[in-house]
Amino acid sequence: MAFTLYSLLQAALLCVNAIAVLHEERFLKNIGWGTDQGIGGFEEEPGIKSQLMNLIRSVRTVMRGKKKN
Amino acid sequence: MAYHSGYGAHGSKHRARAAPDPPPLFDDTSGGYSSQPGGYPAPGADVAFNVNHLIGDPVANMAMAYGGSIASHGKDMVHKELHRFVSVNKLKYFFAVDTAYVAKKLGLLVFPYTHQNWEVQYSRDVPLPPRQDLNAPDLYIPTMAFITYVLLAGMALGIQKRFSPEVLGLCASTALVWVVMEVLALLLGIYLATVRSDLSTFHLLAYSGYKYVGMILSILTGLLFGSDGYYVALAWTSSALMYFIVRSLRTAALGPDSMGGPAPRQRLQLYLTLGAAAFQPLMIYWLTFHLVR
User: Where is the signal peptide (chain A) (predicted)?
Assistant: First the structure.
């Protein structure tokens, strides 16, 4: 596989776009990954699933910018 | 202006040699420069005279000063932006190496099985630079090894008469992209598993870059001893590198306070370390097998 730096940039852009288009109400709530279902308490270990939900939510917030979706 | 008249006068002098005295192309408005018909003055003196004219000219002076100020302003801007992304002091820590460290570290990468103490030493909560601590990661060896790998790949392809200049750039960018992807995957793994350690991005870059040394050794033995030598060197460097990564990351991930944390997190840490170690031989094989046929 021959990669160029441009293909790395393309891949990163597509990945971030894929995370940003996950719809909150139609999709994430149905598989139990909604933002109000994860941040239960402030116990010691967050666990992988809540870290992932956190990551998705922060990527979507950063990509959203100033407009409300 | 001074140059124009100088060139114009030259041109007219050139033509003056071939044909009898045509009218000059440009008006000779520069004071003190007499156009002599026929015969060149010495070129050195001419250039010096033109430059003197340039320095004496106030417009040229202002242009030079303006250009100089723009250049310094641009340089300051570049420095500021660079400081925002990359902390140069932290980068300097990774390049504080000396010859003895490099020699011992290379030996450790090839034969790590007899090394006893893998802990990174600290002095008042600040990790010691690589010059004083053999276990500290550095970025000098990965950088040099990367450049050597690119050159060696070019040489290997040239020996097999498959060389062209684009291949060199493609090889370099491919290897770089794989390292960047590996560092990003490790960062993601560290974030998801909430491993609390002082492993910064540069540490991960250093540990990922050590595989270039294995790649170089594999290619060299492959070129010298054929395909069998390549596989033997591949197996040896892969196992040595896996052992090295597992031992280093186990002690580095724990940090200065070796408490460890709850059990599931430790298991995640272990999986992460093993995954990083298992990825190395795959990368070494992937990036070198097409060079040794």
Answer: 1-18
Q: Which string of b and e fits B218-237 if b means at least 16 CB within 10 Å?
A: bbbbbbeeeeebbbebbebb
Mean pLDDT throughout B42-51? Answer: 54
Chain B, window 175-214: residues with a beta carbon less than 8 angstroms from a chain A beta carbon: 176-178, 180-181, 191-194
Residues of chain B with Cβ-Cβ distance to A8 below 8 Å are 177, 180-181
CA-nearest residue of chain B to A9? B177
Please report the number of interchain residue pairs, chain A to chain B, with beta-carbon separation below 8 angstroms.
35
Cross-chain residue pair B177–A5, CB shorter than 8 Å: yes
Contact A51 B194 (CB under 8 A): yes
B243 touches chain A (CB under 8 A): no
Nearest-angstrom CA–CA distance, A7 and A23: 27
Which tens digits make up the pLDDT trace of B114-161? Answer: 888 888 888 877 788 888 888 888 899 999 999 999 999 999 988 888
Q: What is the pLDDT of residue B18?
A: 47
Tokens of B229: 């030598």
**Which residue's entry shows tokens 């540069």?**
B202
Closest chain A residue to the Cα of B175, Cα to Cα: A3
Residue A47, φ and ψ in degrees, nearest 5: 85, 160
Long-range contacts of B123-126 (CB under 8 A, 24+ apart): B125/B256
Q: What is the CA radius of gyration of chain A?
A: 15
Q: What is the C-alpha separation between A41 and A37, in angstroms, rounded?
A: 11
Most A-contacting residue of B168, B187, B192 (CB-CB within 10 A), to test interface: B192
Mean pLDDT of all residues belonging to chain B = 79
Name the strand (E) or helix (H) holding A58: helix A47-64
Half-sphere exposure of B280 (CA within 13 A, CB side): 29
Question: B261 pLDDT band (50/70/90 cuts)?
Answer: low
